[in-house]
């Protein structure tokens, strides 16, 4: 391959010989003066012979170059004349000992360039195409195509804004030649193999209203190479260059050449495109606008297939199908482009900035045999967010047409029709769509799925499979999986691991996406290509399918994790990356039961563990062991130890040495003994509305499933935007066995009590739990303010007297004040309810501030308080295997009597003993949830 210089740029062999003789004579002047007369005679004889030799040689050359020789390629071989001249030159002209700096010139003389000079009229060929535009008479097809085109244009007009040619030319452009004297440098790349249209293209380009900078005519492996060369040379224009190669670089070679241009813009044309004389001006003007500067422009394009009713995608060549897409413009159905239209890829011509061309080669093409047009548009969108647009034309002005002849290029019937090539191109566009290419269908019909799984290896596929299968087998749920593909995780191997047929990797139906990360990373040891490939593909898939969550294993490669995180954050509709530890995956099948609106909040809550301890080191050790054995789903869980001033040495050593891998550890110790009421109430204060506090005294023990219960309940009842549940103020881990606010403290069995609804239904209770509960930030701020306004050393001075409640006489109890507030304002706590009252926490009833205290006359039976811990997945025990909707949760008042949420508020309003005096029995105190301060009375 090489750029061929024109013969006019080279000196003739006679010029070289004349120069050498001059050098010889002038350089040897001093020696010739001293030479003998015999030497002069020899020189005269040599010159005479040389003249005779050149006369003979010139005669041969004149015959050789005579126009009478019709077939130059079949001319006789006169190289013998050249050999004779060379022999005479060596013997008579330049003796061997005087070559010196003339050696290079002498070597050039031996191989003279003797190309004939032609004019375009002598060598140009034309291709006459018998052309009658086919017009469809299929009424169904005409209707389908026009309807689809109308839908596309309506959508684009609303989303993008579609301009006519006149409107485009009125847009501000940095390449507007009417106002800007600086003109863009445009390199035009023409690729030719056999077609006889080169002269027509060059003539059109030479008469453009905006001159080009360069034209490169490419001939790769063409049998007509010599003919194309002569045509280029005949134009004798230094801006037009000929590039040839005996190897056929096919469709990608022209783009490889375009990488070398130093121009501002590149115009790549198929050999069947004869652009109108205004095309360069129109194209550069549009490319210079802000709106279309990051785009590839053309005159012909295709919109890829739309999904069918059976959720599959048809071939782009399927007949009598609206879903098969569009060819634009399509004269067969009288579809003309009168406004700019975004397409999925362009055909026959491409106009873009030189900078964008390199994007074509970021990934290895699906095949080099075809499809460079689709690959270009796919790569530009995927890595540069650049669109592909077909420009409108003025139907009355052929000079605005991308193909002024409207011959081959605008006839849809002449596009690829060979079955094997159609299959390859179908496979290619499906590959693009399934790796994140946002086609016009995807833009017009955004999808909504619950989860997109990602696996970078076969082991990760296997680890994720239980949760993926649960999503896919649950009615109303949608979930797909993307795999890295290639050497990392071959699609067919992933299908086998999932017990799916291998065919899923080929069929045009959403289920598994092979990202083929190796197409970009290759054998590189750098992490950058992997990050780029995963990020770009997953970003596109997220934009197409809008998953609520992207789910993968927590121990995935750090670079892949980074790419997934960046991709998830690009979705404005809210997609959350969920990183699950492998042992926890089978434990979160309840995730499927959450609404898609709740799932994006998976990572929002921050639940801290706050332990109150002093001098029960054995109890604390038991609690810490149970905490360490729980499932945490990869979440960050801060832990704090709140110690009173009399803490013993062994407890300090234990909390200091305790290793907590799930988040930061904080130690707090009071200087002055505060007692239990201060120790508990001051152990935690929320930092935000997503900060939740789990309060645990050291004689509590918890179930391995406690955190799953908290997270599940928060997502179902608090973080689902479709659920309004402002009364919920805490989530209990414990299920009580007695009614503790009644003097007699009767036994209580919720399983029996709710058997008519469901024996294991969770329920709402007005009683807060002090033996393992998570408190909500807004209500805890309220509690701080309320307790500050009501707390005194004398319990009898408390004005709140709940009728028939034992809590009225409680002293030194933080829980009493919380009960008062919840009663007055109608708040409730969520309680678990499982067989045998098994719970997520239990109280071991060890001596402390209340239990076995000297001044406590109440005697506690351990059997009334200690409950078994859940050691199995609780999901199967729930009604219908999941948490019931908030509206179906039964609610109890402080005395374990069924009362509606409205009834609870009415009881508080009737008591009328809150910090604000609300005179109306239908009003309760409303607070500022940021500060917890009471602000007004509000109707309920």
Q: How would you explain this protein's 3D organization?
A:
- The model is unreliable at 1-38, 57-82, 88-111 and 408-415 (pLDDT under 50).
- The protein is of the alpha/beta class and 940 residues long.
- The protein contains 29 helices and 30 strands.
- The protein has a nine-stranded mixed β-sheet with strand order 20-19-18-21-25-23-26-24-28. It has a six-stranded mixed β-sheet with strand order 1-4-3-2-5-11, sandwiched between helices.
- It folds into three domains: 139-174 and 183-435, Spore Coat Polysaccharide Biosynthesis Protein SpsA, Chain A; 446-590, Rossmann fold (3-Layer(aba) Sandwich), CATH 3.40.50.2000; 606-939, Alpha-Beta Complex (Spore Coat Polysaccharide Biosynthesis Protein SpsA, Chain A), CATH 3.90.550.
Q: What is the radius of gyration?
A: 43 Å
N/C terminus separation: 85 Å
CATH superfamily of the largest domain: Spore Coat Polysaccharide Biosynthesis Protein SpsA, Chain A
The helix-and-strand class reads alpha/beta
Query: What proportion of the residues is helical, as a percent range?
Result: 25-40%
Which CATH C-level class of the largest domain is it? Answer: Alpha Beta
Largest sheet: 9 strands, mixed
Number of strands: 30
Q: Specify the CATH architecture of the largest domain.
A: Alpha-Beta Complex
| Weakly predicted, low-confidence segments | 1-38, 57-82, 88-111, 408-415
With helices defined by DSSP (H or I, 4 residues minimum), what is the helix count? 29
Count of distinct structural domains: 3
Transmembrane segments: 43-65
Protein name: Nucleotide-diphospho-sugar transferase
GO molecular function: transferase activity
InterPro entries: Nucleotide-diphossugar_trans
């Amino acid at each position: 391959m090489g750029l061929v210089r024109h013969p006019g740029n080279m000196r003739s062999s006679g010029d070289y010989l004349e120069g050498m003789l001059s050098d010889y004579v002038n350089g040897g002047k001093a020696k010739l003066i001293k030479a003998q007369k015999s030497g002069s005679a020899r020189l005269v004889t040599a010159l005479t012979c040389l003249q005779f030799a050149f006369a003979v040689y010139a005669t041969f050359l004149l015959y050789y170059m005579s126009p009478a020789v019709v077939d130059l390629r079949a001319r006789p071989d006169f190289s013998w004349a050249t050999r004779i001249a060379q022999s005479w030159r060596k013997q008579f002209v330049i003796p061997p000992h005087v070559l010196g700096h003339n050696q290079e010139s002498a070597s050039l003389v031996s191989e003279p360039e003797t190309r004939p000079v032609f004019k375009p009229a002598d060598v140009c060929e034309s291709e006459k195409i018998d052309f009658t535009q086919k017009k469809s008479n299929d009424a169904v097809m005409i209707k389908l195509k026009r309807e689809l085109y109308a839908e596309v244009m309506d959508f684009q007009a609303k989303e993008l804004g579609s301009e006519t040619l006149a409107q485009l030319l009125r847009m501000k452009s940095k390449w507007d030649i009417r106002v800007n004297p600086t003109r863009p440098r445009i390199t035009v790349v023409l690729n030719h193999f056999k077609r006889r249209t080169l002269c027509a293209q060059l003539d059109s380009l030479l008469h453009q209203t905006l001159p080009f900078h360069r034209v490169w005519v490419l001939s790769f492996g063409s049998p007509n190479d010599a003919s194309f060369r002569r045509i280029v040379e005949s134009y004798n224009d230094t801006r037009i260059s000929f590039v040839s190669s005996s190897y056929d670089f096919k469709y990608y070679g022209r783009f490889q050449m375009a990488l070398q241009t130093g121009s501002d813009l590149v115009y790549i044309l198929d050999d069947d495109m004869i652009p109108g004389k205004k095309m360069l001006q129109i194209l550069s003007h549009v490319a210079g606008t802000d709106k279309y500067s990051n785009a590839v422009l053309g005159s012909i394009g295709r919109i890829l297939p739309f999904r069918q009713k059976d959720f599959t995608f048809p071939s782009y060549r399927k007949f009598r199908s609206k879903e098969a897409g569009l060819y634009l413009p399509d004269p067969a159905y009288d579809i003309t482009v009168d406004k700019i239209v975004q397409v999925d890829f362009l055909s026959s011509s491409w106009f873009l900035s030189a900078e964008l061309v390199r994007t074509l080669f970021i990934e290895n093409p699906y095949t080099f045999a075809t499809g460079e047009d689709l690959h270009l548009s796919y790569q530009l969108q995927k890595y540069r967010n650049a669109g592909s647009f077909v420009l409108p034309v003025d139907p009355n002005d052929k000079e605005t047409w991308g193909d002024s002849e409207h011959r081959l290029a605008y006839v849809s019937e002449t596009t690829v029709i060979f079955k094997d090539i159609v299959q390859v191109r179908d496979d290619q566009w499906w590959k693009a769509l399934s790796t994140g290419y946002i086609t016009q269908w995807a833009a017009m019909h955004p999808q909504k799925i619950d989860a997109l799984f990602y696996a970078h290896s076969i082991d990760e596929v296997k680890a994720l499979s239980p949760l993926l299968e649960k999503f896919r087998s649950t009615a109303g749920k949608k979930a797909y999986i993307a795999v890295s593909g290639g050497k990392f995780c071959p699609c067919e191997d992933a299908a086998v691991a999932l017990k799916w047929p291998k065919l899923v990797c080929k069929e045009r139906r959403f289920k598994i996406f092979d990202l083929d990360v190796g197409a970009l990373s290759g054998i590189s040891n750098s992490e950058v290509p992997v990050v780029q490939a995963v990020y770009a593909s997953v970003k596109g898939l997220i934009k197409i399918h809008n998953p609520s969550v992207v789910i993968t294993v927590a121990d995935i490669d750090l670079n892949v994790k980074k790419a997934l995180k960046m991709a998830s954050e690009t979705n404005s509709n809210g997609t959350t990356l969920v990183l699950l530890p492998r042992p926890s995956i089978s434990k979160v099948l309840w995730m499927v039961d959450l609404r898609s609106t709740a799932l994006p909040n998976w990572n929002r809550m921050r639940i801290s563990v706050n332990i109150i301890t002093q001098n029960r080191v054995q109890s604390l050790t038991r609690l810490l062991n149970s905490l360490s054995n729980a499932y945490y789903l990869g979440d960050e869980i801060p832990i704090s130890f709140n110690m009173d001033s009399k803490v013993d040495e062994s407890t300090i050593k234990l909390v200091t040495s305790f290793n907590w891998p799930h988040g930061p550890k904080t130690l707090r110790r009071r200087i002055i003994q505060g007692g239990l009421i201060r120790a508990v109430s001051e152990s935690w204060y929320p930092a935000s509305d997503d900060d939740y506090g789990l309060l645990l005294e050291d004689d509590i023990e918890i179930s391995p499933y406690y955190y799953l219960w908290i997270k599940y309940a928060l997502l179902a009842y608090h973080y689902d935007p479709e659920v309004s549940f402002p009364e919920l103020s805490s989530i209990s881990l414990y299920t009580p066995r007695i009614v503790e606010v009644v003097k007699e403290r009767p036994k209580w069995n919720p399983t029996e009590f709710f058997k008519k609804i469901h024996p294991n239904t969770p329920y709402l209770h007005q009683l807060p739990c002090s033996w393992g509960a998570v408190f909500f930030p807004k209500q805890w701020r309220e509690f701080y303010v309320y307790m500050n306004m009501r707390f005194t050393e004398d319990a009898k001075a408390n004005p709140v007297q709940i009728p028939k409640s034992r809590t009225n006489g409680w002293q030194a109890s933080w829980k009493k004040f919380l009960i008062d507030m919840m009663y007055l304002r109608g708040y409730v706590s969520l309680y678990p309810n499982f067989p045998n009252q098994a719970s997520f926490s239990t109280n071991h009833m060890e001596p402390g501030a209340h239990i076995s205290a000297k001044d406590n006359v109440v005697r506690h039976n351990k059997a009334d308080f200690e409950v078994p811990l859940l050691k199995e997945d609780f999901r199967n025990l729930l009604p219908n295997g999941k948490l019931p909707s908030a509206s179906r949760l039964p609610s109890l008042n402080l005395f374990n009597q069924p009362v509606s949420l409205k009834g609870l508020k009415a009881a508080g309003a009737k008591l009328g003993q809150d910090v604000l005096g609300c005179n109306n029995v239908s009003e309760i105190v409303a607070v500022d949830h940021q500060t917890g301060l009471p602000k007004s009375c509000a109707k309920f």
